[in-house]
């Protein structure tokens, strides 16, 4: 026991330093830490400035790329327009050569022996047998019917040739490599048309009774929709020729909204 009467437990408690004197960094250490912090902040600000400069350079490169794309597209359009013009001139020249009249060649007479009426010898008077009146009437009626039928065929042929001649040298055909696919704007938006028949086109958004995109499906026919309005290949070529004569630019899509056939359409079309 100690002098005050307390029993000792055998442990020794060393002397402890005051709290305000424990683990206190020196001013030099604080200044060094502040200097390191300032250096880190400067490095961060420098990295931010470099990032901003890189973004500005990227935006400038994007602008230059967009301007180059616009110039390329304008050059492609000018090239396509020139190719279309040359193709139209070539077609006109080809049609002009085809429409030229070729000289007619007549077959020479193979038998060059002159005809002499004195070579015919008649031994006796010729006997003429009477022809029945009914036979004459039937023959006359047959000739009249044949005569009435021929002008219709001839008139059709003349009308067809006249229609071809009216097109003249300005007849233009569709070329898929230089001309875009025709469209229809009946819904207010340009919709590409489908190929139909031999060079013809079919609408993808309208019929004679409805105008919508896509066209309604046939309820009892799988993978089929209501057929759109149509235009034959010959009618489309005539339309192209008329537009070319009016000065229309054929390098842009042709709107067939007001040029479809007036008759009905097929029952349905297959969805592709």
Describe the structure.
This is GAGA-binding transcriptional activator. It comes from Rhododendron simsii (Sims's rhododendron). Belongs to the BBR/BPC family. Residues 146-160 have a biased composition (Basic residues). The chain is mainly α and 272 residues long. The N and C termini lie far apart (108 Å). Among the domains are: 33-90; 172-265, no CATH class. Mean pLDDT is 75; it is low at 103-115, 117-122 and 266-272. It has helices at residues 27-98, 133-167, 233-245, and strands spanning 183-184, 191-192, 194-196, 200-202, 224-225, 230-231, 269-270.
| Shape estimate | elongated
Order of helices and strands: HHEEEEEEHE
**Helical/strand content category:** mainly alpha
Task: Please give the oligomerization state of what you see.
Answer: single chain
Strand element count = 7
Summary tags:
272 residues; mainly alpha; three-stranded antiparallel β-sheet; two-stranded antiparallel ribbon; 7 strands; disordered C terminus
Q: Strands, helices and their partners?
A:
Elements: H1 27-98, H2 133-167, E1 183-184, E2 191-192, E3 194-196, E4 200-202, E5 224-225, E6 230-231, H3 233-245, E7 269-270
Antiparallel strand pairs: 1-2, 3-4, 4-6, 5-7
Quick description:
With 272 residues, this protein is mainly alpha-helical. Helices cover 44% and strands 6% of the residues. The protein is elongated and about 165 Å long.
């Amino acid at each position: 026991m100690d002098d005050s009467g307390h029993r000792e437990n055998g442990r020794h408690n060393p002397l402890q330093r005051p709290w305000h004197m424990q683990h206190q960094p020196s001013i030099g250490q604080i200044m060094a830490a502040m200097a390191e912090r300032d250096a880190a902040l400067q490095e961060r600000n420098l990295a931010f400035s470099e990032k901003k400069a890189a973004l500005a350079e990227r935006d400038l490169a994007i602008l230059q790329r967009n301007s180059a794309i616009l110039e390329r597209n304008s050059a492609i359009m000018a090239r396509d327009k020139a190719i279309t013009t040359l193709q139209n001139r070539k077609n006109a020249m080809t049609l002009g050569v085809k429409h030229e009249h070729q000289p007619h060649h007549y077959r020479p007479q193979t038998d060059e022996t002159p005809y002499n009426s004195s070579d015919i010898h008649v031994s006796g008077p010729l006997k003429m047998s009477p022809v029945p009146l009914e036979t004459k009437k039937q023959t006359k009626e047959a000739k009249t019917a044949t005569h009435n039928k021929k002008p219709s065929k001839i008139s059709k042929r003349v009308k067809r040739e006249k229609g071809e001649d009216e097109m003249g040298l300005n007849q233009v055909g569709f070329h898929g490599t230089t001309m875009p696919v025709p469209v229809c704007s009946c819904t207010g938006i340009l919709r590409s048309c489908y190929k139909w028949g031999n060079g013809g086109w079919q609408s993808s958004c309208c019929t004679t009774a409805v105008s919508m995109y896509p066209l309604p499906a046939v309820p009892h026919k799988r993978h089929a929709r209501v057929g759109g309005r149509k235009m034959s290949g010959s009618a489309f070529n005539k339309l192209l020729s008329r537009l070319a004569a009016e000065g229309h630019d054929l390098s842009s899509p042709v709107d067939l909204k007001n040029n479809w056939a007036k008759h009905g359409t097929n029952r349905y079309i297959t969805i592709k």
